[in-house]
């Protein structure tokens, strides 16, 4: 059924959160209903003074770096189409491989520093670098971990990427999903949320050493979690670390959200934190911490509810309890102290230093993100705990500037995962970030947002 603007009354869609999820809902509502501007008003509320959410940059030593979401996969087709639509400049990551070390708290159990001398891009080791590294240093890695482990892991990653690409199929062959479970089952990905990455890789025939060292490094870098996380999120994290052609937006990935909001002609209310969503007749009333009230026909929550204090009236059914993994991103302009890592000289320190899973280790990874000169670098550290000054003073022989960011970063992944509903109240209150239990990436947010936009169109406007 095709609706024309005169068929439907003026409608206000309110979106809470101006990250890639919220801005994508606005984009897809307009895209699938291009003539809706006259009768659909889209209001986006953002508690921060800037858009982008977990796509944010930091500036240190006069240079700007991604502090949160950094890397996009070459098969992230929504992100790629956004970049094209919005005319955003793209940065392709070099295929040059950084040297990699794996630290167990006492020693480097693996160090490629003697055979690789290139610069790394960031703590989110792009998978091109991760896997490019593997290709370059194939003999050494194959000797330690065995060829079979790499092949089996690649098969799993290829399977997940191929299955995920079903979400780009046209609307005629792709249903609108009312639940995350249905969405994952339809693509053939659900079973990967019922098992851990470790078990999935062991079943496939990868070696325990490979999983406990190399794969743990990747999951700790990308999600601050171990290989005991659910297999789907774990596989997606490996995919992001092993593909050739990873990329980002020049100047910051947050530009995607800014561009989509503008392009979709949405009204953006910055510094406006929503703390109440009340049902009033057939509509909703949003209340902000400024005491302002907004009448909405449809409400979209485009942020994780887990650490929020939004009061729903009447209360929504309890959603499955989910803890967020906090990741502390610490940026240091200085020089790492090689002695801290038991190394003889500075030149033995690898450009990317990952860690095995050990709760006592103070960080998950350290990577050089900029080389200023031989004695001065900018490093990005990810850790599960704050990096205290006393620790940093031991780890660094020179520390000129330090910038810290505490992220409520992504869900703590478990198998089996239990998903919150996309539709929170059985009416027109929607939740994009229910999908984050599958995996948390810019693209998965966009894919979930596209489904929410289709749900709104089919359920509210009945425009299937
Ligand atoms: C350290 C880190 C590294 C990452 N690396 C990558 C990567 O390399 N590649 C990748 O694809 N993904 C990466 N991710 C994941 C990615 O950032 C997220 O999956 C994605 O950005 C989530 O987008 P979102 O719009 O769903 O949520 P968010 O980006 O969190 O947006 C939600 C927005 O809602 C706002 N908000 C919250 N509550 C309210 C309220 N009550 N009222 C109004 N506004 C509110 C928030 O301020 C925020 O702006 C990383 C994440 C982190 C933290």
From TrEMBL:
Key words of the record: FAD, Flavoprotein, Glycoprotein, Oxidoreductase, Signal
One GO MF term attached to the UniProt entry: prenylcysteine oxidase activity
One Pfam family hit: NAD_binding_8
Keyword Cell cycle in record: no
Entry's Gene Ontology BP terms: prenylated protein catabolic process; prenylcysteine catabolic process
Location of the Prenylcysteine lyase domain: 137-461
Gene3D superfamilies (UniProt xref): FAD/NAD(P)-binding domain (3.50.50.60)
Highest taxon above the source species: Eukaryota
Matching InterPro entries: FAD/NAD-bd_sf, Prenylcys_lyase, Prenylcysteine_Oxase1
Cofactor(s) annotated in UniProt: FAD
Keyword Signal set for record: yes
Family recorded in the similarity comment: Belongs to the prenylcysteine oxidase family.
Protein name listed in UniProt: Prenylcysteine lyase domain-containing protein
Species, as recorded: Crotalaria pallida (Smooth rattlebox)
């Amino acid at each position: 059924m095709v609706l024309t603007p005169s068929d439907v009354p003026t409608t206000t869609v309110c979106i809470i959160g101006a990250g890639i999820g919220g801005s994508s809902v606005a984009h897809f509502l307009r895209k699938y209903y291009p003539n809706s501007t006259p009768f659909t008003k889209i209001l986006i509320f953002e508690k921060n003074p800037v858009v982008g959410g977990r796509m944010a940059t930091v500036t240190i030593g006069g240079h700007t770096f991604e502090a949160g979401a950094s890397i996009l996969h070459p098969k992230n087709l929504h992100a790629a189409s956004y970049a094209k639509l919005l005319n955003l400049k793209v940065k392709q990551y070099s295929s040059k491989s950084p040297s990699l070390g794996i630290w167990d708290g006492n020693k480097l159990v693996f160090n490629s520093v003697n055979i690789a001398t290139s610069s790394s891009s960031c703590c989110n080791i792009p998978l091109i670098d991760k896997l490019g590294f593997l290709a370059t240093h194939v003999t050494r890695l194959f000797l330690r971990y065995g060829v079979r482990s790499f092949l089996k892991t690649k098969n799993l990653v290829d399977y997940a990427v191929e299955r995920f690409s079903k979400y780009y199929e046209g609307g005629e062959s792709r249903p609108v999903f009312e639940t995350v479970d249905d969405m994952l089952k339809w693509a053939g990905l659900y079973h990967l949320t019922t098992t851990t990455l470790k078990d999935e890789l062991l079943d496939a025939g990868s070696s325990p050493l490979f999983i406990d060292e190399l794969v743990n490094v990747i999951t700790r870098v990308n999600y601050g979690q171990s290989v005991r996380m659910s297999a789907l999120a774990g596989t997606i994290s490996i995919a992001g670390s092993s593909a050739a052609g990873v990329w980002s937006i020049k100047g910051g990935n947050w530009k995607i959200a800014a561009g989509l909001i503008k392009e979709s002609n949405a009204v953006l209310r910055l510094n406006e934190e929503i703390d109440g969503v009340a049902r009033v007749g057939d509509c909703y009333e949003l209340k902000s911490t400024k005491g302002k009230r907004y009448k909405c026909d449809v409400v979209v929550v485009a942020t994780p509810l887990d650490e929020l204090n939004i009061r729903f009236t009447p209360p929504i059914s309890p959603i499955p309890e989910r803890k967020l993994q906090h990741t502390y991103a610490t940026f240091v302009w200085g020089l790492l102290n090689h002695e801290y890592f038991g190394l003889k000289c500075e030149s033995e320190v690898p450009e990317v230093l990952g860690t095995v899973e050990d709760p006592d280790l103070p960080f998950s990874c350290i990577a050089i993100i900029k080389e200023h000169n031989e004695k001065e670098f900018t490093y990005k550290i990810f850790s599960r705990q704050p990096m205290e000054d006393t620790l940093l003073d031991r780890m660094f022989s020179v520390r000129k500037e330090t910038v810290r960011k505490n992220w409520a970063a992504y869900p703590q992944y478990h198998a089996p995962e239990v998903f919150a509903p996309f539709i929170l109240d059985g009416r027109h209150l929607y939740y994009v970030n229910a999908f984050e239990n599958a995996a948390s990436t810019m693209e998965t947010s966009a894919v979930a947002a596209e489904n929410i936009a289709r749900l709104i169109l089919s359920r509210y406007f009945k425009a299937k």
